[in-house]
């Protein structure tokens, strides 16, 4: 009988969880140290309930429940946009950063009494992120600028322009991602804003962690200039750069690699591989360091690099089906070179009488009469001697003609 009662208790708890979560587990994680607003309000609700329900006692959490209900707390790990695809600043309006969808809008409330995590400025810490459902991707952590007022709506311009921490595919253990990072040199109340962009999906996750910095030392000196970069491992589409590190009175937080006036790579160390370059092309690279206060160093001396020839490519374009008002096209791209084509992008003319309606095995965009196809996560590279294939449907208002030319990562391709 005791076993039966215990089993019934477990089933009751499981049923309660399914009711609260709508019976699904579609969300994937949130920052647990420093804790996000949804996570800390969930924990506050657990502590205040004394039972199976959530009863927050923190005033800001109480106000969030009054506005948006308790479901966002049960789903504290689900603050996401399913089709973000890296377009965070484009699709999230100022004032909506902490809760970019209706479900989590209450966590944008402009209050000074959200639960906070006390941290030490400029300290090395272990950031922890819950992995409710693990996925590969990149995490970026931003902090608010000096003088930020937590009682005002959080805007993109309130964040420092570059993340103080960035990591791709951090270690996963015991249901959490965790990794080492150095906190910025700040004082007082701030928000750490985290973005996790999955690499196997356009889905992205967002969280606001309210923190109070203590123990900071004013950082009034920019880093010294990095040393001259040294190029190695040059291929048709990438190059590795290494350079002597910068020095700073409190510590360098990262480096930006420039080609001309454009940032083409970032790194937390004094080494990076610059990719998505064009074959047989001259480039000049220079490096700038940055510290926790956001101060930039003088530029390093420049290094000149010419990428190699990635080999030849052949594009096979067929139309297996054409009908009144539309057609289907299948495209195969073969790499007959000796080097892999990394991050392939195929460009061809797309006249105004054609209108793209569907694509598969690639992402296709059409701008100014040009179509650009890029690979999915599983076919983004073309191995030497390899081939990738994709297709699309298009509507037409005039007789259709096959493209006369294609370029693969800037290189002209043969058409059989």
Which helices and strands, and how do they pair?
Blueprint lengths: L1 H19 L10 E3 L3 H13 L9 H10 L2 H4 L5 E2 L6 H4 L25 E4 L3 E7 L6 E7 L21 E4 L3 E2 L2 E7 L5 E11 L5 E11 L15 E3 L6 E4 L9 E8 L2 E6 L3 E4 L7 E10 L11 E4 L6 E11 L2 E10 L9 E5 L4 E7 L1 E6 L2 E6 L11 E10 L10 E2 L2 E2 L4
Parallel strand pairs: 3-10
Antiparallel strand pairs: 1-4, 2-10, 4-8, 5-6, 5-9, 7-8, 9-10, 11-12, 12-15, 13-14, 13-16, 16-17, 18-19, 19-24, 20-23, 20-25, 21-24, 22-23, 25-26
Task: Describe the 3D structure.
There is one protein chain. This protein has 416 residues and is mainly beta. The chain folds into three domains: 24-214, Coagulation Factor XIII, Chain A, domain 1 (Distorted Sandwich); 230-306, Immunoglobulins (Immunoglobulin-like), CATH 2.60.40.10; 313-412, Immunoglobulin-like. It has five helices and 26 strands. Strands 2, 3, 5, 6, 9 and 10 form a six-stranded mixed beta sheet that branches. The longest helix has 19 residues, at 2-20. The protein is globular and about 70 Å long. Residues 1-27 have low confidence and may be disordered.
How many strands?
Answer: 26
Give the distance, in angstroms, between the N- and C-terminal Cα atoms.
77 Å
CATH superfamily of the largest domain: chitin-binding protein cbp21
The fold-level CATH name of the largest domain is Coagulation Factor XIII, Chain A, domain 1
Computed over alpha carbons, the radius of gyration is 25 Å
**What is the subunit arrangement here?**
single chain
Q: What is the CATH architecture annotation of the largest domain?
A: Distorted Sandwich
CATH class of the largest domain: Mainly Beta
Instruction: Report helical residue fraction.
Output: 10-25%
- Gross morphology is globular
Unreliable runs, pLDDT <50, ≥5 residues?
1-27
Structural class: mainly beta
């Amino acid at each position: 009988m005791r076993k039966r009662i215990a089993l019934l208790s477990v089933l009751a708890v499981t049923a309660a969880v399914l009711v609260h979560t709508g019976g699904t587990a579609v969300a994937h994680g949130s920052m647990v140290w420093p804790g996000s607003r949804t996570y800390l309000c969930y924990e506050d609700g657990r502590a205040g309930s004394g039972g199976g329900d959530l009863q927050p006692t923190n005033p800001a959490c109480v106000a969030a429940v009054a506005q948006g209900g308790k479901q966002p707390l049960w789903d504290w790990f689900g603050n996401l946009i399913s089709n973000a695809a890296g377009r965070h600043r484009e699709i999230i309006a100022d004032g909506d950063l902490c809760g970019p969808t209706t479900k989590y809008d209450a966590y944008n409330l402009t209050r000074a009494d959200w639960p906070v995590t006390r941290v030490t400025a400029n300290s090395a810490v272990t950031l922890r992120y819950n992995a409710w459902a693990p996925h590969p991707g990149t995490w970026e952590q931003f902090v608010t600028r000096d003088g930020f007022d937590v009682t005002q709506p959080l805007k993109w311009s309130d964040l420092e322009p570059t993340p103080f921490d960035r990591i791709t595919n951090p270690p996963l253990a015991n249901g959490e991602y965790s990794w080492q990072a150095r906190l910025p040199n700040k004082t007082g109340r701030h928000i750490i804003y985290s973005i996790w962009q999955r690499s196997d999906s356009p889905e992205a996750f967002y969280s606001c962690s309210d923190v109070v910095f203590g123990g900071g030392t004013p950082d009034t000196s920019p880093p010294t200039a990095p040393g001259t970069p040294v190029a190695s491992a040059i291929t048709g589409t990438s190059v590795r750069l290494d350079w002597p590190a910068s020095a700073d009175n409190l510590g360098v937080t990262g480096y930006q690699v420039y080609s001309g006036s454009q940032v083409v790579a970032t790194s937390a160390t004094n080494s990076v591989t610059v990719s998505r370059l064009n074959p047989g092309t001259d480039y000049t690279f220079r490096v700038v360091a940055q510290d926790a206060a956001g101060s930039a160093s003088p530029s390093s001396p420049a290094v000149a690099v010419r990428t190699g020839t990635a080999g030849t490519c052949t594009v096979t374009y067929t139309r297996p089906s054409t009908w009144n008002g539309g057609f289907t096209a299948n495209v195969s791209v073969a790499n007959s070179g000796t080097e892999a084509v990394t991050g392939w992008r195929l460009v061809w003319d797309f006249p105004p009488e054609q209108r793209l309606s569907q694509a598969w095995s690639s992402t296709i965009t059409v701008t100014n009469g040009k179509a650009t196809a890029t690979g999915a996560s599983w076919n983004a590279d073309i191995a030497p001697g390899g081939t990738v294939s994709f297709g699309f449907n298009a509507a037409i208002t005039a007789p259709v003609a096959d493209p006369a030319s294609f370029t693969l990562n800037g290189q002209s391709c043969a058409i059989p």
